[in-house]
């Protein structure tokens, strides 16, 4: 029997309590927000907040079993991010932020277990009490939650040395559509005397099944992550600049630094990122070369002066041989001590938000921003940058008011995790039309070359990213039909 919305709401209130269920239109609009606010406008029929008690008990399995029985679409939403966690097909939107507990830190075996809705910042805070850190951490404030980071791959500072957040996952607990709870990897050992200790068990590794799945195969309720020893004073900040005609030199610098395993992180940006901070006086443009266009914000990880001297010498040699110019102003203002004043307990927030953050400065002048996010080999950086610049110029976006900046990670896979930004007015239809036209051009030249998309959701990128995978895509669809035969989990994201 097809349930009415009133029937659905009534049952959900019975499961989680009336206080945690809403059909209020204002709530729906607020929960719709992503970093591409205004570009995607799918709304849920009902919002449900999932809460866990002090022992980690929750009603997520019961909610999923109910939704599956009645074929109701269901999407899990964490914080505000790039992945459009708005339900493309309506139905239930799960607010996971009530499942936010850091359950266990094991300082000897260096892992942490947290609920799927836990803030990545809260996980860092718990680890810091034991002298540990996640070697990959994001920059969008406390709204970033670990379950979303896993299902969308997870980016952050430290990717150059340690890879994606998903590379740090050694165990998962996942709720399947029928309400079945499955523990994978290290968490499969949770009930033994040893407890969790490695992701490899005597079965095929299934952790990757839920990475980049966008919540289409299961809802992550717990995550076990590998940590490392780490202190803020072990991270050392530098910035090297290159001219617009030196992009080949930028590529070569990146390749050598990653291959040599020298750097902890390289963050690639261009001058648009600093246009408004310089205009407001947050960055002193007199301390930068007038022709500096590309900025490589670079971190070294060194436990003592001897290790630092060795890595610093190798890094400087590579940058200087390629014609890079060091700019301490950016290292200090965008990465260093001053940038930590508004972070959580002095840990890096890298000056993204807050009173003096570069993003706040740009938003004041340029409005909201949209992002396209993709991965491709470092050796294609010049070609891809030139294509994006041409597209933005053609669409009327290559100006300070749209701040068309690049803000990209260099990965240990010798790839660029490229983010193309455009700032725009979400209430101006003409501006939105320019944005959509530009996104279409980016989609066209990116799909043609075979990028790996990370945001927004893959289903917005047309059929080609699926079709080029040939029979692998058919195999994934078979898994989806096996795990989720009623196609309730974020329908539209895989097929």
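^ Assign residues to that structure.
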């Amino acid at each position: 029997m097809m349930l009415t919305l009133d029937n659905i709401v009534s049952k959900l209130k019975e499961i989680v309590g009336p206080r945690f269920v809403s059909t209020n239109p204002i709530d729906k609009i607020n929960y719709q927000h992503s970093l591409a606010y205004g570009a995607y406008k799918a709304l849920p029929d009902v919002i449900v907040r999932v809460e866990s008690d002090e022992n980690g008990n929750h009603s997520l399995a019961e909610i999923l079993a109910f939704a599956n029985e009645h074929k109701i679409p269901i999407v899990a939403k964490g914080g505000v991010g790039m992945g459009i966690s708005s339900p493309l097909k309506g139905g239930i939107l799960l607010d996971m932020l009530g499942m936010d507990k850091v359950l266990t830190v094991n300082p000897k075996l260096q892992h942490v277990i947290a609920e799927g809705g836990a803030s990545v910042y809260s996980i860092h805070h718990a680890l810091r009490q034991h002298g540990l850190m996640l070697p990959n951490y994001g920059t969008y404030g406390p709204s970033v939650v670990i379950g979303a980071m896993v299902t969308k791959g997870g980016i952050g500072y430290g990717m150059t040395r340690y890879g994606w957040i998903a590379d740090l996952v050694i165990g998962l607990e996942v709720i399947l559509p029928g309400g079945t709870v499955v523990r994978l990897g290290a968490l499969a050992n949770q009930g033994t005397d040893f407890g969790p200790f490695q992701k490899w068990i005597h079965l095929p590794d299934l952790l990757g099944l839920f990475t980049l799945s966008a919540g289409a195969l299961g809802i992550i309720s717990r995550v076990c992550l590998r940590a490392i020893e780490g202190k803020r004073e072990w991270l050392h900040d530098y910035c090297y600049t290159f001219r617009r005609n030196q992009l080949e030199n930028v590529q070569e610098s990146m390749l050598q630094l990653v291959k040599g395993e020298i750097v902890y992180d390289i963050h690639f940006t261009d001058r648009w990122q600093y246009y408004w901070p310089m205009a407001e006086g947050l960055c002193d443009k007199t301390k930068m070369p007038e022709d500096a266009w590309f900025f490589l914000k670079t971190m070294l990880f060194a436990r003592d002066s001897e290790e630092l001297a060795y890595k610093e010498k190798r890094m400087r040699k590579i940058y200087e041989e390629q014609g890079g110019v060091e700019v301490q102003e950016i290292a200090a203002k965008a990465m260093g001590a001053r940038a930590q004043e508004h972070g959580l307990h002095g840990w890096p927030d890298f000056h993204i938000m807050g009173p003096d953050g570069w993003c706040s400065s740009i938003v004041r002048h340029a409005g909201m921003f949209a992002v396209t996010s993709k991965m491709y080999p470092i050796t294609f950086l010049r070609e891809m940058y030139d294509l994006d610049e041409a597209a933005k110029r053609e669409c009327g976006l290559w100006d300070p008011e749209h701040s068309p900046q690049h803000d990209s990670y260099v990965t240990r896979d010798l790839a660029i995790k490229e983010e193309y930004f455009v700032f725009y007015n979400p209430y101006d239809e003409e501006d939105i039309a320019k944005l959509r036209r530009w996104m279409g051009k980016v989609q066209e030249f990116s799909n043609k070359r075979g990028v790996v998309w990370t945001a927004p959701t893959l289903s917005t990128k047309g059929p080609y990213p699926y079709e080029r995978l040939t029979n692998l895509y058919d195999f994934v669809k078979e898994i989806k039909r096996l795990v989720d035969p009623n196609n309730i989990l974020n329908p539209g994201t895989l097929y």
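The domain at 234-458 is CATH 3.40.462.10 (Vanillyl-alcohol Oxidase; Chain A, domain 3).
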